[in-house]
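ingest -> validate -> predict -> emit
validate: passed (alphabet ok, no gaps, 271 aa)
predict: started
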Amino acid sequence: MRRQRSGSPNVVHSVVRALSLLDAMAAQGRPIGIADLSKRVRLHVSTVHRLLATLISRGYVRQDPETGKYALGLRTFVLGQAYLEQADLRRIVHPALERLVQTTGETANLVVMDREEAVYLDKAESTQSLRFFSRIGHRAPLYCTAVGKVLLAWLPPAEREETLARLTLAPLTRSTITEADALRRELDRVAVQGYALDREECEEGASCLAVPLRDHTGRVVAALGISAPTVRLTEANRERLIPVLLEEARTLQQELGYQGAAAVAPAATRR
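emit:
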């Protein structure tokens, strides 16, 4: 195996070594022993052992309890699937974002979840003079954004609780939900009604609506949302816009292979 170049001052050598282990296991195509793996990556067995322990703890590597050999873990599959889904997802959804801007006059966003944050994968900008700007790649809290609430609400119950336990519910505005039980009730309400609302919970003067997007398995893989100044996202306007968002989501989900109803709630704990 060719050694990695290490001239760049920004290279973290432990990360390079860990990635070299994943590359070697991928090339092997079957479980591999630690001695053979050490030879392939040209690292001492003790170093490889420490790196493998870390990768195992994060789910990127698994060890066969009977043979002691190592193989790629489920987390590597999840990452590969996420890459494929997001690349295809953006291509499929972008025309819908453009349609939403034309129909609603507001900025439309496609957002996915990355651990404890919402990440803006794509957007179409409103042409109105008064609008709130977002950028592709922007990260936002899950607990106080409409898109984030959608991504939390449809997590499997155990995963939802694990994620909530890691969140710090900091008050970003006077309207931010900062109590864990109140957030749970809000997420259950989102799951029942099929959409989420952010009422100036993340930024003063800004409100958002969002609905879930499911793939062919029924899993919610993204949130489709619109953001606008609160003065325009009135209750009457929300009643007009929610069906528009849900219809776009229904159409997109058909393209993604989903065959079920557009707003089926998950098997989450109701309070």
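Strands lie at 61-63, 70-72, 107-114, 117-124, 139-141, 196-199, 206-214, 220-229.
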